[in-house]
Amino acid sequence: MPSIEILVEQPIKKISDRNDYSFAVVCTNPPSSHRDPSLWQTKFEEIGGDLYHLGNPEFKNKKNGWFFAYDLIEEDTLCKRFKFKSKYRKQVLIFLKNLLECSKSRKIYITTDWQVSPNKPYTYKNCYTVQDYVKKHARYGIRFNSWMTIIE
Q: Which of the chain's termini has less CB crowding within 10 Å, N or C?
């Protein structure tokens, strides 16, 4: 199942009320991926910070077991790219902006990891603003098995 994990670099605070969102949110510090093996765990450990995991709504208040974001997304037919479902897009955008405010460096990393995707791990070369991310998401979708840097 797909995981969407967002690393907050140099966290100065945590998102106080994760129940404001209709999807599930879990935070780990030190950053520990829900994927095993994880494509990005080594990078999470190198950078450090708070790692936020997005999950299906039924995982709200869940402490153990499966946790994934399949119901939040629409994937293309080849499992190469995805977009957030329309009912979650606005909340995800607000969530990303809130996470940027939690970072002293104003930098977050959006990662995706899905074992059924044919994509090899890929790191987007550029840094993107939230507005750039929204445009890329709307036009192309986001690549599975990728690492994207978002700055303010």
A: C
The encoded tokens of residue 37 equal 């093996």
CA–CA distance, 59 with 46 (Å, rounded to integer): 28
Q: Residue 76 is encoded by which pair of tokens? A: 């293309």
Residue 2 vs residues 10, 75, 152: alpha-carbon distances, Å: 26, 10, 26
Residues 6+ apart with CB under 8 A from 111: 3, 4, 5, 6, 7, 39, 40, 146, 147, 148
Q: Which of 118, 121, 128 is nearest to 148 (CA)?
A: 128
Can the peptide bond before residue 2 be classed as cis, meaning omega within 30 degrees of 0? Answer: no
For tokens 């790692």, the residue is 51
Chain centroid offset of residue 137 CA:
13
Give the pair of three-digit tokens for residue 44: 């999470």
Biggest CA–CA distance in the chain, Å, is 40
d(CA 57, CA 72): 8
Q: Are 55 and 23 in contact (CB under 8 A)?
A: yes
